[in-house]
C-alpha cells in the first residue's frame, strides 16, 4: 500500500479546484455558498442523491490562488453547520 501522507501535492497556482460537498436535502446549496463565499466566483453542479434521499452531493468548482487559500476554503466549508462532508 502506498503511504500518501509523505507526498506533497504539487500544483501550479492559481488553478481551478473542485470540492465535493454533501449536505442534507432540505438545505439550499446556493444559500450556503453565498454565506461562505460571498462574491467569490464559483460554479456548483448537483452530483448525486443518497439512496434514501436524505443527502445530496454537489461539485463546487472555483479558482484557488495558492495552497493556503485551497486549504482554508476546505476548512471553512468543512466547518459549516449544514455541510456534512467535504472531499
Write the layout of secondary structure elements.
Elements: E1 15-24, H1 29-37, E2 42-49, E3 55-64, H2 67-79, E4 83-86
Antiparallel strand pairs: 1-3, 1-4, 2-3
Largest sheet: 4 strands, antiparallel
* Principal-axis shape: globular
CATH class, anyone?
Alpha Beta
SSE string, helices as H and strands as E: EHEEHE
Question: How is the largest sheet built, in terms of strand order?
Answer: 2-3-1-4
Structural features, described:
- By secondary structure, this protein is an alpha+beta fold.
- The chain has a single domain (12-86), classed as 2-Layer Sandwich (Alpha-Beta Plaits), CATH 3.30.70.260.
- 25% of the residues lie in helices and 37% in strands.
- It is built from 2 helices and 4 strands; from the N terminus they run βαββαβ.
- The chain has helices at residues 29-37, 67-79, and strands at 15-24, 42-49, 55-64, 83-86.
- The chain has a 4-stranded antiparallel sheet, with helices on one face.
- The longest helix is centred in the last third of the chain and has 13 residues, at 67-79.
- The chain is globular, with a radius of gyration of 14 Å.
- It starts with 14 loop residues before the first strand and ends with a strand.
- The model has no long low-confidence stretch (mean pLDDT 94).
Amino acid at each position: 500500500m502506498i503511504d500518501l501522507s509523505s507526498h506533497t501535492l504539487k500544483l501550479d497556482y492559481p488553478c481551478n479546484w473542485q470540492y465535493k460537498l454533501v449536505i442534507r436535502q432540505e438545505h439550499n446549496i446556493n444559500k450556503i455558498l453565498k454565506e461562505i463565499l460571498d462574491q467569490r466566483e464559483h460554479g456548483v453542479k448537483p452530483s448525486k442523491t443518497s439512496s434514501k434521499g436524505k443527502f445530496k452531493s454537489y461539485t463546487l468548482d472555483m479558482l484557488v490562488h495558492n495552497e493556503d487559500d485551497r486549504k482554508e476554503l476546505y476548512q471553512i466549508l468543512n466547518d459549516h453547520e449544514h455541510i456534512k462532508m467535504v472531499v
